[in-house]
UniProtKB/TrEMBL annotation:
The lineage of its organism: Bacteria, Pseudomonadati, Pseudomonadota, Alphaproteobacteria, Rhodobacterales. Its main location: membrane. It holds the Pfam family FtsX. InterPro entries: ABC3_permease_C, Membrane_comp_ABC_pdt. Keywords: Cell membrane, Membrane, Transmembrane, Transmembrane helix. It is found in: Cell membrane. It is a multi-pass membrane protein. The chain crosses the membrane at residues 21-41, 263-287, 308-341, 361-380, 401-421, 427-453, 710-739, 774-796, 802-827. It comes from the Bacteria. The keyword Cell cycle does not apply. This is FtsX-like permease family protein. The keyword Transmembrane applies. Residues 270-380, 723-830 form the ABC3 transporter permease C-terminal domain.
Length: 842
């Protein structure tokens, strides 16, 4: 028979409607919709970042420095090229209200601005007051505006006075929107905005104080930003400047969105795999119902190739419908949710129809549909005309070689597409391996479940428990939904289990383990003239168990052994400025892993002790030369030792520690960590900030709460994606329960014929469904725990422990979902008359 004949058969089969394919269409549509929606949201956010890049940055380009302001030469270079120039200084400080024991304090991120700020956009204040009028102040006191949450925390209202350092400011307004807020990156405290000139005399910008100065420029539209950046770096290569421009106005957010979308697409791929199982099951069930039709066609002369092509074209047409439905849902969902998303996003977004994410979702859907339908479709060739008389299908244990090769090729294409199209190709490959491994584990578990169930039916444990024994026998019997339920529901629960376990372990590390060893305060900007008085206060407090201090500067590693550092290694240590300290002798609790410390009083060529783990990752060795740019001056030091640095303890940790003579004459401040009892914290904070208003004390618990808040948002997004995967698994579960109704009707008829009452039959059906769901939950718990352990151990390099609560919830949730699905289709088996069912099977 020819291809036109195959097409004619497919067309006539499709006249029967789509009712038999609702699981097929739902599974494919959900998987495609999830990937399309995530891609559309990503494109919308990236479009908003591109459109508002200048506003997010605060200018077309920005040069920034740490610890210092730009010098006359640098400002002159910027003025020659800029249409307008704005200077901004950014740092952390303590906002204080009241006096003595009644004083209230809160950490704030202070931004000092000039009259040109903002170059793009506008700062909106509640009530509509212009920013310039608000910062002008009242009388002799300068004005300030702050985030509403900070004002509420301090009990401030408009017109009240508060202190920053030694300066008094009047709260003149509350910030409603700040155009460059997202571009400023992660901050531990809410915003306070003041005029740069009003910070003079507050003690907050003394030499050595930790602050960032930022110089934003407006540029002509035709400016070659890449060339201008190269010119700036070449001119001021040794000045420690950092460059940003409108091409990436909020790099932290852009990177976060890219990584999150990559992960969510991979979660969507897991959902597509779950849907693929449903697709495969639906095709299997459909072909079982078409056995007599296929046998008849074979009897009339149709060969295996024609039969395969006929049903391949039929399933292909249905796949196009499912993909189209998924694309429509995935494109429409972000548009419908745009008002809600735009209100919650800290950045502008352009939600619309984007071809690229829709094309990617369609590609994934087509490859997944072909992959999961090819194997069951190959069964069509196994049907022989004798099936008309035997009422069964001859099943091959494996398809023919050409189908196996095609299956492997499709799987490779799907994984390869995910790796090529994903912004994180390595993550895509690992995720694909994880999904494949989970499917293999679930398939083995399904086979093992059937074996265990069959053995239980012969076990003494079930003697006298007839209903439970029948349920176990049904789970372990040939055919049925055991494999489909465990594979589909199990994979969805595995993703949810992995997310839950990782979330638990991260929160445990942040909220539970860390405070046991972490300091109460991390104290910044202690001036050298204040360190003795500061130590006298904190070390003399009986509630303080330990105080650590260290001088601190910040520098950029510019060269390694005379070569540009970026050419030697690609490492986070080289991506920006890092803390540098000095000491005559190794500080307490310092462990050298190799080399020796410089002798006391050493004043020869500069020497440096480097963090051992980071040094090994960068390929450094004893004797290597490191050039560090500090305050625009370069110091080249020889690595004479490596030491252990534990950044996870929230204590003081420096990548580099130099001999004191190497940094002599450099302005700097001191930092300190204070380990204190909770009852002593309030008095310590009051006395320290009262005596030294310029000092900033960061409560570690407050920092932990801020990190936990951000983590909660991330986990919520990932859990939503995992929930979509689970929803697809539940659709497959419902489809499997619906496909098994005919078998359940026959079983119920036999049981009622031998004397079982409706209650016993219902109990049997419920136990059967619950056993299947519990088995899926147990396997999902195992697969999810292994995945979470791998993420915590190899990706996050953290300890792992099993969370009992989420683990039990996964098993219980699996049993409950399967039970509800089974009971939803139990009414027909219970309502039919046994005689009619048995006569029909004669």
């Amino acid at each position: 028979m020819s291809l036109p004949n195959a097409a004619r058969i497919a067309r006539r089969e499709l006249r029967g409607g789509l009712r038999a394919f609702w699981v097929f269409l739902a599974c494919l549509a959900l998987g495609v919709a999830a990937i399309a929606a995530v891609g559309t949201v990503r494109e919308g956010i990236e479009g908003g970042l591109d459109r508002e890049g200048a506003a997010l940055l605060g200018g077309d380009a920005e040069l920034s420095f740490t610890y210092r302001f730009a010098n006359a030469e640098e400002i002159g270079w910027m003025l020659e090229r800029a249409g307008a120039l704005s200077e901004v200084v950014d740092f952390r400080s303590m906002a204080v209200t009241g006096e003595g024991e009644a004083a209230r304090r809160a950490l704030t991120q202070v931004k000092g601005v000039d009259d040109a700020y903002p170059l793009y956009g506008e700062v909106r204040l509640q009530g509509g007051q212009p920013l310039g009028d608000a910062l002008a102040g009242r009388g002799a006191r300068p004005g300030a505006v702050m985030a509403p949450v900070l004002a509420a925390r301090l009990g401030l209202e408009t017109g009240d006075t508060f202190r920053l350092g030694t300066g008094n400011f009047v709260l003149a307004g509350l910030i409603e929107a700040e155009p460059d807020d997202a571009g400023d990156g992660f901050g531990l405290g809410p915003r306070t905005l003041v005029r740069r000139i009003d910070l003079q005399g507050t003690g907050l910008l003394e030499p050595g104080t930790l602050f960032d100065s930022k110089y934003r420029m407006t540029l002509p539209p035709d400016t070659d930003l890449e060339a201008l950046e190269a010119a700036a770096r070449a001119r001021f290569a040794d000045e420690g400047l950092r460059w940003r421009d409108r091409r990436n106005g909020a790099p932290g957010i852009a990177e976060f969105v890219e990584q999150m979308s990559a992960f969510l697409v991979l979660v969507g791929m897991a959902g597509l795999a779950v849907g693929g199982i449903g697709v495969s099951s639906a095709v299997n069930a459909y072909l079982d119902r078409k056995t007599e039709v296929i046998a008849t066609l074979k009897s009339l002369g149709a060969d295996g190739r024609t039969i395969f092509l006929a049903y391949f074209m039929q399933i292909g047409a249905l796949a196009l419908i499912g993909i189209g439905m998924g694309l429509a849902i995935g494109a429409a969902a972000p548009l419908l949710a745009a008002p809600l998303l735009e209100d919650r996003l800290p950045i502008p977004a352009d939600f619309g129809l984007y071809p690229q994410p829709l094309a990617e979702a369609a590609l994934y859907g087509a490859l997944a549909a072909a992959l999961f339908t090819l194997w069951p479709l190959s069964r069509a060739e196994a049907v022989r005309p004798a099936a008309l008389f035997r009422g069964s299908v001859e099943r091959r244990s494996l398809p023919r070689a050409r189908y196996l090769v095609a299956t492997l090729a499709l799987a490779g294409a799907l994984v390869g597409s995910a790796a090529i199209l994903s912004p994180e190709p390595i993550l895509a490959l690992y995720a694909a391996l994880g999904v494949a491994g989970s499917l293999a584990l679930l398939a083995l578990a399904a086979a093992g479940t059937r074996i265990v169930a069959r053995r239980l039916t012969r076990s003494r444990l079930l003697r006298g428990r007839t209903t439970l024994r029948l349920a176990a026998g049904s789970v372990g019997g040939p055919g049925g939904e055991t494999a489909a339920v465990i594979l589909s529901l199990g994979l969805g629960l595995s993703v949810l289990s992995a997310v839950g376990q990782v979330d638990h372990n991260l929160r445990s590390a942040i909220e539970t383990e860390l405070p046991d060893v972490a300091p109460a305060f991390f104290v910044l900007d202690i001036q050298p003239s204040q360190i003795d008085g500061y130590l006298s206060r904190v070390e003399g407090d009986p509630g303080v168990s330990r105080v650590d201090t260290a001088p601190m500067l910040r520098g950029v590693i510019s060269q390694i052994n005379g070569r540009p550092a970026s050419e030697v290694a690609d490492h986070w240590v080289l991506s920006g400025d890092r803390g540098v300290t000095y000491s005559e002798a190794p500080p307490a609790r310092t462990t050298l892993t190799s080399g020796t410390w410089w002798p006391e009083g050493y004043d020869g060529p500069p020497q440096v002790s480097f963090a051992a783990e980071e040094g090994a990752e960068m390929g450094l060795a004893l004797g290597d030369a490191i050039t560090v740019n500090i305050l625009g001056r370069e110091i080249t030091a020889e690595i004479t030792s490596f030491r252990e640095v534990d950044f996870s303890s929230a204590g003081i940790g420096f990548i580099m520690s130099m001999n004191p003579a190497a940094l002599e004459g450099y302005p700097h401040s001191w930092i300190s960590t204070v380990y204190a009892e909770p009852d002593a914290e309030a008095a310590l904070l009051r006395d320290i900030s009262g005596a030294y208003p310029n000092i900033t004390a960061i409560g570690v618990r407050d920092a932990i709460a801020r990190v936990s808040e951000v983590l909660g948002s991330v986990v919520a997004a990932i859990t939503s994606g995992a929930g979509a995967t689970l929803l697809t698994g539940i659709v497959v579960l419902i489809g499997a329960a619906a496909a098994g109704v005919r078998a359940r009707i026959f079983e119920a008829a036999v049981l009622r014929t031998v004397g079982a009452v409706r209650g016993q039959v219902l109990t049997y059906l419920a136990l059967r469904s619950a056993l299947l769901g519990a088995a899926a939950g147990l396997v999902a718990l195992l697969a999810g725990t292994i995945s979470a352990w791998a993420v915590m151990t190899f990706v996050l390099d953290a300890d792992f422990s099993i969370a009992a609560g989420p683990a039990l919830a996964i098993v219980f949730g699996g049993a409950l979902a399967s039970l509800l699905a089974g009971l939803a289709f139990a009414w027909r088996p219970l309502s039919v008359r046994p005689a009619g069912v048995l006569r029909a099977r004669e």
